[in-house]
Specification:
Layout: E1 31-34, E2 40-45, E3 61-66, E4 72-77, E5 83-85, E6 96-97, E7 103-106, E8 109-114, E9 117-122, E10 127-130, E11 135-137
Parallel strand pairs: 1-6
Antiparallel strand pairs: 1-2, 2-3, 3-4, 4-5, 7-8, 8-9, 9-10, 10-11
C-alpha cells in the first residue's frame, strides 16, 4: 500500500516580508550656560531635537530665560525671528557660567556675555538680547 502514504510536504521557503524601518529622529544633547550673575540662562537644542523635546519649528533652537526682576523667556529659532514666550515655567538658570567678555557658539547661534547682559544671534541675522531691564528681539 504504498499509494496510501501522503506525499512529503514541499520544503518551505521563507517568504519575503516587507518590514518598514522604525521612524527615527536624530537626537542630540541639550547644552546650557548662564550669565556670571546667574540671572540669565540659555539652553541650546540641536537640529532634530532631543529624546524629550522637539523644537516647534524645524532646525535648532536657543531659549534664554531671565529670572529677575520679572521672569522672561525668549526663543530664537534657527529659521526665524526671536520671540517672547508667555510661560508659567520657571526653569532658569543652569549650566556653566559664560564669563563676561566671552562668546559661546553652537550650530547656527553665537552668544556674547557682557556686564550689560547676554546677546545671541542666529546665522540668519536674527537676535535676542536680555538684561535686567530689557528683553529685545528681532
Amino acid at each position: 500500500m504504498s499509494g496510501c502514504t501522503p506525499p512529503a510536504p514541499a520544503p518551505s521557503t521563507p517568504s519575503a516580508v516587507a518590514v518598514e524601518p522604525a521612524a527615527t529622529v536624530a537626537t542630540g544633547e541639550l547644552e546650557m550656560f548662564t550669565s556670571p550673575s546667574g540671572n540669565i540662562g540659555c539652553t541650546y537644542v540641536p537640529s532634530g531635537g532631543t529624546a524629550v523635546y522637539q523644537p516647534a519649528q524645524a532646525g535648532a533652537e536657543l531659549t534664554c530665560d531671565r529670572s529677575e526682576p520679572t521672569y522672561v523667556r525668549v526663543v530664537l529659532p534657527e529659521n526665524g525671528p526671536a520671540h517672547v514666550v508667555e510661560t508659567d515655567e520657571r526653569g532658569c538658570c543652569s549650566g556653566e557660567a559664560l564669563a563676561y567678555g566671552q562668546t559661546w557658539s553652537r550650530g547656527p547661534f553665537r552668544c556674547e556675555s557682557s556686564e550689560q547682559g547676554v546677546t545671541c544671534t542666529s546665522a540668519g541675522g536674527h537676535r535676542l538680547s536680555l538684561n535686567r531691564e530689557r528683553a529685545d528681539v528681532n
